[in-house]
Design brief:
heterotrimer; A alpha/beta; B alpha/beta; C alpha/beta; A: alpha/beta; Hypothetical Protein Ychn, Chain: A; five-stranded parallel sheet; 5 helices; globular; B: alpha/beta; 23% strand
Chain lengths: 138, 108, 126
């Protein structure tokens, strides 16, 4: 049986701006499927990934209504990964940088997401087997 | 010495700084560390056969294992037959493998 | 546990944030007792220069009263016991080979970077 690990990830990119977001979620998914204890610290624009008021839309260019378009909403990705992790005996602790949340006005996060600070990130990293920072670009 | 996974997400032609990660990988390998490089996203442009980017050749010559993310390759129509020599396809789970093994993992 | 912060992105949203957010983050972790060091490379080598001045920005009747003071923040990291290194090759290609740097910043070459990387438990690229 694979040993259960605790891994911390720091994300920075806001939704819909970078391929790094998709890659990060693909990495998180593997950890969730392995039942790992996963900590995510969302910094800067990444705090909007969990914003509860993301809304799907239609796509007139492709002639698809909202239902058919099934537009990805990162908040749904987070919720799905949380369910996946739990189902596999692990969990995801998703922490949004509080100041980043405030300045962006994205305080309404989905269930299971909490606020934190850089000191929390340091503690998460200290208590983890390993940590990966996925930076953003200028 | 530590083992490393260096993740290169940037297009090798995007900027003059594009060689930074492969330079670091080569130096770490020459110093005796075990080093792997995983190309993801536009970083896989360095993995296409015939590219003018020197990335893969330099890394392979220095004993660095070079991998390219399978999804990123497929997304960019880089098939197995159009992959440069010295590059192996990898699943994104390899990042978790390295993290779980305690390797230092850097993202560029 | 010791972590090495390699900072390369420079002046990203520094006006809106009033800080470089990675330098700021480093300060905040240091405040929590973290043992850290910083390497400034690529465009971020510019952070080691005294004389950066982002003051005076205004939009209509809005005035920025607290501009970023990045050189001061770098100096403050040094004051808190966080070593700060700057990569010499990146200074040189930017015409900064002879430029005065914030007191206490140490120069390091690309060749020396692997040794520094090896010394830290974690290496986080920003």
């Amino acid at each position: 049986m694979r040993e259960r690990k605790t891994l911390t990830f720091l994300l920075m990119d806001p939704p819909y701006e970078s391929a790094r977001t998709t890659t990060a979620f693909r990495v998180l998914q593997v950890a969730a499927q392995r039942g790992y204890d996963i900590k995510v610290f969302a910094y800067e624009g990444a705090v909007a990934l969990s914003f509860a008021q993301q809304t799907a839309h239609a796509n007139a260019v492709h002639g698809r209504d909202a239902e058919t378009e099934h537009h990805p909403l990162p908040k749904d990705w987070i919720a799905a990964l949380m369910r996946d992790a739990t189902a596999n005996g692990g969990r995801i602790d998703w922490v949004n940088c509080g100041l980043c949340v405030d300045e962006r006005g994205v305080g309404a996060a989905i269930e299971g997401v909490r606020r934190g600070s850089p000191a929390d990130f340091w503690k998460l990293a200290t208590d983890s087997d390993n940590t990966l920072v996925i930076p953003t670009r200028g | 010495m530590a083992s490393y996974l260096l993740i290169e997400s940037r297009d090798p032609f995007e900027s003059k700084d594009a060689s930074y990660l492969s330079d670091l990988a080569v130096r770490l390998a020459k110093a005796g560390s075990s080093v792997s490089v995983l190309l993801v996203q536009n970083g896989v442009f360095a993995a296409r056969r015939g590219t003018h980017a020197e990335t893969v050749r330099r890394l392979a010559a220095a004993g660095v294992d070079v991998f390219a993310d399978d999804f990123s390759l497929r997304e960019r129509a880089i098939t197995a037959t159009s992959l440069a020599d010295g590059v192996k396809t990898a699943a994104i789970g390899s990042v978790i493998d390295h993290l779980a093994a305690g390797h230092k993992v850097l993202w560029h | 546990m010791k972590a090495l912060q390699i900072i390369e992105t420079a002046y990203r949203a520094t006006i809106e944030e009033q800080d470089d957010t990675v330098v700021w983050f480093t300060h905040a972790m240091r405040g929590a007792g973290a043992e850290l060091a910083v390497v400034l490379r690529a465009g971020a080598v510019n952070y080691a220069l005294p004389g950066q001045d982002a003051s005076g920005l205004a939009f209509g009747d809005w005035r920025q009263t607290q501009p970023p003071r990045i050189a001061g923040d770098v100096a403050a990291l040094l004051g808190r016991g966080v070593p700060v290194y700057v990569v010499t090759e990146d200074l040189r290609i930017r015409g900064l080979a002879e430029a005065p740097l914030v007191d206490g910043v140490k120069c390091i070459s690309d060749e020396q970077l692997p040794k520094l990387v090896e010394e830290y438990d974690h290496v986080w690229s920003w």
